[in-house]
């Protein structure tokens, strides 16, 4: 199968606000990113995905956009963006931008006009519905950020829909004028040199136009509906493909809460001419309590069998029918060494073990800023959190629904909050970890004095160096791109072991994702022939003659 650039790539996600501040105002910016391009080139990545940098009131840290074509002055100017694109391309780094087309900011001109009248050009750019006969919301849908998904506007005597904050009104994709406006904007950024799109909640853009109440066994006033896979979703994505992605050869990776192992081919099978890849949400529920009513906060314990089962289903279902987008971290997820690994005694081992599992698979691995040096969760008290999701969800589950206690919520937030991914990047041991000479917009993790790029890269057991080697391995050996995936030891509760096989080679990827020592005999049936190590995080090991250490990982070529 002919390879597209993104199939041989490792993509690095930058959260600009927290990456590098060049002008001392405490907020990361585009010139800061430009100053770190050499670092990213040394890491070996092939493309950069930037979280939104467009004009925004920052209610949801830029995922509430009020001008799609203008860089927010917090991050710099459009000229800075064009300079970044040129500097990245000079280093053979592609640029992927964030398409947030399910909703805009309520400060967008489109919405400001739409709310004024039922009879102007923008009236139907959003989803307006009349109140119920008693004046209440059109239905019982909840927003992801708590409360009703509907907000009333007296000027129109109607409610508008917002799956997220009330400041993030959902666009009406039923309206062809909306779709063409989005496609136009995408062409604008292509003309500036942008190479691809990460598409925010793309599986939510189509809504069932009946807007019926969502059943709720607890009969709460508002309940999260199924916000994904609406009736015209694939029609819209195929139109976007025809209008922009194919003719302008733009890579696409959809953030698709509605994609499952069972339906993922509908999104990414090349024959359907929709998207190139989608991010799964299923594997990230390997620590979620079954049957909970508190959404993501129903934290249980990390269940390796759930993780192996989910990732394997996606590997198997997408073989020859699409491509995986591989990740454990992003700006919405806590740090994997704290969430599923061991960020104290085994931070190097668990960071590199999870990286080995991910980068050995079929697909395109995504590295989130700081993941390459094993950054950890911070310790937050409720008042320390910055993310709108925390304050609104606390109100929803602890105060309104009372389906969680404050203690339970805080414990779950400590494990899972998005804020853990948004503490500033830790560059060195200087003030504010070298992120800013000003007052950082968000607190740093105090452990930056021990965990930072400069210190890590001086270590023999350096997580950065391990990522460099992993990425080199992927670039050097096609088996990691084209080899058939085959899970081994499916019921093993500690080892994640799988093969990558081509006609000529067979590699074994082994990771002990537990803090226990595992007898080497567990591999007896798998490693019966000679082998050579391709990569290992246990620096002294040179044979398979001793037990597997906690969070030890290695890649073998069986010969
Ligand atoms: O996230 C959408 C999404 O998946 C969230 O509902 C997710 O379940 C939640 O953030 C997990 O805690 C995208 C962006 O990645 C996120 O940063 C935005 O807040 C959201 O859309 C609205 O744009
Ligand atoms: Ca700045």
Explain what this protein looks like in three dimensions.
This protein has 559 residues and is α/β, with parallel strands linked by helices. Among the domains are: 10-95 and 260-466, Glycosidases (TIM Barrel, Alpha-Beta Barrel); 484-558, Immunoglobulin-like (Sandwich), CATH 2.60.40. It is 26% helix and 14% strand. The chain is built from 15 helices and 18 strands. It has helices spanning 30-34, 37-43, 78-90, 109-114, 176-191, 233-245, 264-268, 304-318, 336-339, 347-359, 388-400, 406-416, 453-458, 463-476, 479-482; strands spanning 11-14, 47-50, 54-55, 67-71, 94-99, 128-129, 150-153, 158-161, 196-199, 251-255, 277-279, 325-326, 364-368, 484-488, 495-501, 506-512, 531-536, 553-558. An eight-stranded parallel beta sheet has the order 11-10-9-5-2-1-13-12. Helix 5 (176-191) runs parallel beside helix 6 (233-245) and helix 10 (347-359) packs parallel to helix 14. It is globular. 51% of the residues are buried. The site of calcium ion has 5 residues, from loops. Belongs to the glycosyl hydrolase 13 family. Pfam families: Alpha-amylase (PF00128).
């Amino acid at each position: 199968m002919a390879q597209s650039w993104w199939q041989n790539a490792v993509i690095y996600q930058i959260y600009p606000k927290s990456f590098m501040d060049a002008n001392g105002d405490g907020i990361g910016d585009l010139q800061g990113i430009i100053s770190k391009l050499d670092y990213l080139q040394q890491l070996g990545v092939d493309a950069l995905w930037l979280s939104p940098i467009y004009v925004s009131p920052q209610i949801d840290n830029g995922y509430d956009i009020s001008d799609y074509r203008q860089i927010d002055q917090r991050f710099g100017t459009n000229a800075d963006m064009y300079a970044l694109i040129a500097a990245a391309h000079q280093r053979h780094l592609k640029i992927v931008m964030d398409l947030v087309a399910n909703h805009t900011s309520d400060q967008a001109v489109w919405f400001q006009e739409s709310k004024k009248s039922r009879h102007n050009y923008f009236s139907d750019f959003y989803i307006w519905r009349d109140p119920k006969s008693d004046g209440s919301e059109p239905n019982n849908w909840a927003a992801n950020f708590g409360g009703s998904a509907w907000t009333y506007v007296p000027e129109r005597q109607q409610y508008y829909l917002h799956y997220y904050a009330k400041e993030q009104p959902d666009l009406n994709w039923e309206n062809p004028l909306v779709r063409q406006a989005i496609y136009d904007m995408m062409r604008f950024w292509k003309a500036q040199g942008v190479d691809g799109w990460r598409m925010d909640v793309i599986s939510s853009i189509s809504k069932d136009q009946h807007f019926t109440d969502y059943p709720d066994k607890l009969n709460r006033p508002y309940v999260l509906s199924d916000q994904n896979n609406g009736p015209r979703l694939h029609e819209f994505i195929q139109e976007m493909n025809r209008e922009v992605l194919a003719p302008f050869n733009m890579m696409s990776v959809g953030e698709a809460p509605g994609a499952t192992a069972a339906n993922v081919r509908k999104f990414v099978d090349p024959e359907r001419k929709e998207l190139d890849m989608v991010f799964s949400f299923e594997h990230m529920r390997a620590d979620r309590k079954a049957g909970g009513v508190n959404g993501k906060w129903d934290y249980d314990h990390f269940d390796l069998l759930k993780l192996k089962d989910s990732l394997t289903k996606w590997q198997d279902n997408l073989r020859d029918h699409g491509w995986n987008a591989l990740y454990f971290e992003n700006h919405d997820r806590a740090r994997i060494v704290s969430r599923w690994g061991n960020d104290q005694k085994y931070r190097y081992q668990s960071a590199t073990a999870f990286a080995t599992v991910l980068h050995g698979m079929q697909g395109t691995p995504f590295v989130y800023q700081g993941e390459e040096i094993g950054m950890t969760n911070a310790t937050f008290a409720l008042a320390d959190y910055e993310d709108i999701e925390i304050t609104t969800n606390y109100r929803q589950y602890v105060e309104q629904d009372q389906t969680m206690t404050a203690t339970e919520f805080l414990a779950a937030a400590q494990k899972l909050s998005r804020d853990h991914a948004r503490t500033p990047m830790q560059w060195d041991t200087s003030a504010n970890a070298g992120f800013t000479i000003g007052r950082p917009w968000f607190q740093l993790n105090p452990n930056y004095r021990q965990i930072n790029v400069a210190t890590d890269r001086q270590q023999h057991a350096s997580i950065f160096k391990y990522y460099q080697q992993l990425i080199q391995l992927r670039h050097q050996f096609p088996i990691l791109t084209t080899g058939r995936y085959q899970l081994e030891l499916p019921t093993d509760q500690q080892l994640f072991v799988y093969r990558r096989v081509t006609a000529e080679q067979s590699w074994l990827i082994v990771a002990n994702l537990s803090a226990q020592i595992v007898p080497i005999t567990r591999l007896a049936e798998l490693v019966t022939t000679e082998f050579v190590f391709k990569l290992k995080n246990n620096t002294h090991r040179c044979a398979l003659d001793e037990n597997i250490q906690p969070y030890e990982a290695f890649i073998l070529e069986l010969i």
